[in-house]
Amino acid sequence: KTRANMATNMTDEMDSTGTEDSSSTIVATALGYLIGAGSLLLYTPIAFRVYRQKHADGLALSTWWLKLIGYGFSDVYYITRGYDISTYTEMAAITIEAAVVLFLVAYYQERLDRQFLSFTALYILCSAWGLTGAPDGITAFGQLISVGLNAGALFPQFWLNYITQSKGDYSPLTASLASLGCAIRFWTTIELNGSDPILLITFGTAFLINSSLLAQIMYYGVVVEGLTPLKVYAADMGKRRDYRSPSNDNVRVGGGDKEFELERPIFSEEGRTLT
């Protein structure tokens, strides 16, 4: 009787654990598709801002090349490993979005030249090889490289914001959504991808980089430019605002008690150089 009770208890525990695992898998899968849908808006604010302004002065072209290459490595890794589509829907979506932003930046910076076309052709050829004939070791190495590329992709934006002492044109909404998405993906990787260490490193690093960029944007927007956090986020939809003082050639930044002059180039609220 005692053994029978023990067996019954063990069965109940296994059923309970199985139910919990099943529930976690369902939630993780649902979140995966939700992130995929939300990712359609990840780079839309940046693309919309560039198109509306008709310039891309506050964006670094190299950032978007590095992003596109890094996302391409990830797409190849997920597809060749046969992972469920719910685990990489957003990766496929943001690859397309990054390509659109890359084109817009190159177009408005007048850099749609022979070099740009050559890089594009090389990117397509390498992606095709990765999907059809590359060894597993190469695709795994490519995913590791994507960690460095995606981290390094934002360094030019960090630097551009720093030297201009402005929040630049990188959308704070994009940085926020990316940070949230990476945090969720870290958990879904544990649930759906068997805690793939390469993917955990990928999303952990991406979370740190995106959240750091968001902090920098908020610092320059609030402390240096004198905007409220809400206005920093609303800059994606707002009108261009200049900070030039009409009385002299210097530049006024901020407002009220926080206003001060700079004798060097400064960006408008949307990133266009004023001096």
Task: Please give a quick description of this structure.
The chain has 275 residues and is an all-alpha fold. It contains ten helices and two strands; from the N terminus they run H-H-H-H-H-H-H-H-H-H-E-E.
Describe the protein in words.
The chain has 275 residues and is mainly α. It contains ten helices and two strands; from the N terminus they run H-H-H-H-H-H-H-H-H-H-E-E. The protein has helices spanning 2-38, 44-53, 61-81, 89-108, 114-132, 136-153, 155-164, 172-192, 197-224, 229-234; strands at residues 251-253, 260-262. A two-stranded antiparallel ribbon has the order 1-2. A hairpin with a 6-residue loop joins strand 1 (251-253) and strand 2. The longest helix has 37 residues, at 2-38. It is globular. The chain starts with a helix and ends in a 13-residue tail after the last strand.
Topology record:
Blueprint: H1 2-38, H2 44-53, H3 61-81, H4 89-108, H5 114-132, H6 136-153, H7 155-164, H8 172-192, H9 197-224, H10 229-234, E1 251-253, E2 260-262
Helix pairs in contact: 1-4, 1-8, 2-4, 3-4, 3-5, 3-6, 6-9, 8-9
How many strands, what sense, and barrel or not for the largest sheet?
Answer: 2 strands, antiparallel
Structural class estimated from helices and strands: mainly alpha
Regarding quaternary structure, what we see is single chain
Distance between the amino and carboxyl termini: 88 Å
Number of strands: 2
Output the number of helix runs: 10
Helical amount among residues, as a percent range?
55-70%
What string, H for helix and E for strand, traces the elements in order? HHHHHHHHHHEE
Major sheet: order of its strands?
1-2
From the alpha carbons, calculate the radius of gyration and give it in angstroms: 23 Å
Residue-averaged pLDDT: 79
Spans of at least 5 consecutive residues whose pLDDT stays below 50 are 13-17, 239-275
Tell the overall outline.
Answer: globular
The share of residues in extended strands comes to: under 5%
